[in-house]
Structures are given as C-alpha cells and as structure tokens.
C-alpha cells in the first residue's frame, strides 16, 4: 500500500496494480481483499474505464485471450492455448458498449480482466479458474481506428451472419473444451446483440448477462432495503427510468416480477407501475411499432413526452433510476421535481464511470435538501450538507456477480434461472444490518463483501437445488459454511 500511495494519478495506481497481478498474484489479491474500499475504484470503475480508453498506450502484455475474426474456424485451438485447463468462469466482451464510454473495440479487455479479479477477490473463485476473453470483430470507433497504438483489428465491426457465426463457434468451442458447467458471463455487449445472445444460449449453456441480470439483482436489493426508509411495498411505488436498454429494462423486469410475486398480480399488471424514457422520450403505445423488442412491454398508454423533467412531473414517480450512459442528465430541475413530489425521493444514478453518472451524490443531496435516498454505479465520497454527513450507496453489479457465480459453481448448476436473481437480491438485502441502516446505508459496506458473497452464493445454490438445476449432489447441509469453505484465500503461511 505504501508503494501504491506514491502514485497520485489513478491510472498509475491501476498500472501498478496490474503489474502486481502479473508478478505476484497472491499479494495482489491479499492487497485487494484487505483494502477493498480503497482499491475497488482503482481496479474497477471508474479507473478501469480510463484504462480501457488508453489500453493501447498502457499495454504491457495480454492479460486475457483475444479471439478475432482471423481465428474463425480455429477457436477451439485458440482456447487450448490458454495455459490453465480447469476454467470455471469466463467473462467475455466484444467491447461495443464499455461502461457508458461506447465502442472501445478490443481495448474493452480491461473489463473482463477487472470483473474476473473481483470474482476472485470478492467471490473467492480461484484465479486460475478465471478466463477473460475479448472477441475482436472490429470497431466502429473512428478515433481508435486511426490510433497508432490501437491493439485490435483495423476494420469496422462485423455484423449479421459473420458476427453470429463467430459467436456460435465460440460458444460451441467453450462447451466442448470446458464442459457444460463453465459459467459464461456476457459483459458490455451492445444491446442489439446482448438480448439475443442471452436468449439464444440461455437454454443450451450456463450463461449470465451481468448488465441485464446482475444489475437488476443489485438494484432490486437496494430498493428492498430502501423501503425501510420510505415505507410501503414495491407495489406501492412508481418507477421512472432514464435509459431503456440492457440495464434499464433488465431492472424494470425484475422489479415487475418481484412485485407480481409479492402481490399475486400478473406481471403484465405489475409492469404498469414502471415507466421508461429513452433517447426519444417516454416509451408510449403510439411508438410501439418502431420500438426494439425489449422496450415493447413498457409501452404504456400515454401522450408522448420528450423531456425527462416533464415525465417526472406527469408520471410522479417515487423512484428515479438513471441507466442512460449519459452524464448530468438528472438536472437540478429533475431532482427538484422529484423532491417536491416525495418526502424521500429514491434516486439511483447508475451509469458508469463517474463522468457518465446522471448526477453526483452532492447534487442529489443538495438539490433535494438532504432528503434523497441516493446510490450510484461508481463510488462517490461522503457528502456534508446542512451539518449532516451523507453516505452514498454504490449500486453496482459487483455486489452480485461474484457471489452469484460462486453459487452456480458450488452447486454445479447447469442453467441460470430468474428465480436465482431474486434469491441473490434477497440475500444481499438481508445483509444490510441495523447499524448500516442507522448510518443511512441501503447497501452493506464492501469491507464485508466476502461474507456477503457467501450468503448470496448459498441462496443462489439453494435455488439451483430447489429447481433441480444443480448437479453437485448431495446438497450440502449448511450452504453458507460450504460456500465459505470453497472460497480461495490468498493466505500467507507463518514460518515462525
Ligand atoms: N451500476 C451498474 O452496476 C451498471 C451500470 N450500467 C451503466 O448503465 C449505462 C447503460 O448501460 P446499458 O443499459 O447496457 O446501455 P444501453 O445502450 O443498452 O442503453 C442505454 C439507454 O439509454 C438511452 N439513452 C441514451 N442517451 C440518452 C439520453 N440523452 N436521454 C435519454 N435516454 C438516453 C438509450 O436510448 P435509445 O434506446 O433510444 O438509444 C438506451 O435506451 C452505462 O453507462 C453502464 O455503465 C450498466 C450495467 C451495470
Ligand atoms: C458495472 C457494469 O457492468 C457496467 O457499467 O457496465
Ligand atoms: Mg457491464
């Protein structure tokens, strides 16, 4: 830590951490686990975003496997080049939607690398069982195509059949090489591929889309905890989203399912409490014909509204969630409108990295006169307002996927089921202690994350057994203890 503190610039700290991961993996994980709150923003959002943007010029060595269009027909051979054989989790991206930073092509590799280091540090999956993969089908980022340090194919993105065939060969090769119990986490694909990949491979492979499913689970947990402060059940609340893509519609659907479960109303009915705004305005029935399929369930009967602030005033949400990838879109007028409608407005600005956050923590607290229940995707520090200290929450899927993955691995699950996402949410929400609530927290601190992950893993595994999707039999009696016993720990022996 003393060495790291020599660096002032976050990107330099990131590079120092990546060097450490390469040269002394155990120390890297020991450091990350023991200093998780300080180092998460270094190896993960926001710094990993900058690292991806500059990946070509800070490149030292490949940290994961690159599979490009040039390897078509040989993907199985490429997989066999990876030195580790017993892989349990693959995080794969094609780099088209890296955080809220857009198409970063092959430079998106920073994301699978970062996510997998959290699988180990936060969820205890062995580092050697983790495989980061970037599929290089080109990039439409003109700046990168002209950048002399760009590390990927210099061509525009493959689409249609060319893309589908490469992905299909990849998915088949993974199953052939590692069996059906390897977890494939799709990460930061653009939504025109993400939903289809999940639907296509969800019935044949153990796949999980972190942006759609992991985000939904973490936000639902935060909302369940937030109800302690605002009162009522989910069904008593009205939700408005800015952004109707993977994160937005994924969260909306899980909330609707939980509502439907709690109140015994059909999910179609529950959806009516949830409204979404995209780049063209409120999603309403009159737009139905031109909407992508994942937006269709949210096209309710209403007049068109283009401005968010007007949508807030008319829809009167109690919860406002930002999943637009565009920074500073929760303006003073928007937050003030939320605060005039609600005693305690729930405001989540989920877009990453910090530059893309819909508002800052300080803005949310000051513009709501200290009444907002606020969480963001990237971390914000404490905020002082009116002689009170506010602790913003971090609603990031990093709370969920490490424990979720561990639960799948330890039960030998062969498919992911939506019920498991609800199980993960409930486990996370249950880990918020009375003491946390007294400090105004809706998420437990990351310092306890390994214990939290063990609880999430246990709940997810229990669901896998209940649904008959687990293959590791018999079911262990104490799943939390079993989860803890499965976790990799970078311990140092004492020779004294
Ligand atoms: N906190 C967390 O754990 C997570 C955060 N995220 C963050 O969420 C953001 C979005 O990700 P994702 O859902 O995958 O991206 P998508 O591209 O799938 O969706 C983005 C959505 O935002 C809409 N949008 C874009 N610009 C505007 C605007 N100016 N006003 C209103 N709506 C707008 C788009 O509209 P249209 O459809 O019309 O183009 C689209 O519906 C990213 O920044 C990402 O980092 C994602 C996953 C997890
Ligand atoms: C956190 C995350 O997965 C994202 O911003 O895409
Ligand atoms: Mg992501």
UniProtKB/TrEMBL annotation:
Which residues are the active-site ones? 44, 115
Kindly name one Pfam family recorded for this protein. Answer: Malic_M
Which biological processes are named by the entry's GO terms?
malate metabolic process
Coiled-coil annotated spans: none
Query: Binding residues for (S)-malate, per the UniProt record?
Result: 97, 352, 396
Question: Which note does the record give on the cofactor?
Answer: Divalent metal cations. Prefers magnesium or manganese.
Q: Which cofactor does it need?
A: Mn(2+); Mg(2+)
Keywords in alphabetical order:
Metal-binding, Oxidoreductase
The record's annotation in PROSITE patterns points to: MALIC_ENZYMES
A GO term, aspect molecular function? metal ion binding
What are the Malic enzyme N-terminal domain coordinates in residue numbering?
A: 21-202
Q: Which amino acid positions bind a divalent metal cation, per UniProt?
A: 187-188, 211
Q: For the Malic enzyme NAD-binding domain, which residue ranges apply? A: 212-465
Mind naming one GO cellular-component term on file for this protein? Answer: chloroplast
- What's this protein's family per the entry? Belongs to the malic enzymes family.
Q: What is this protein called?
A: Malic enzyme
- Which organism is this entry from? Punica granatum
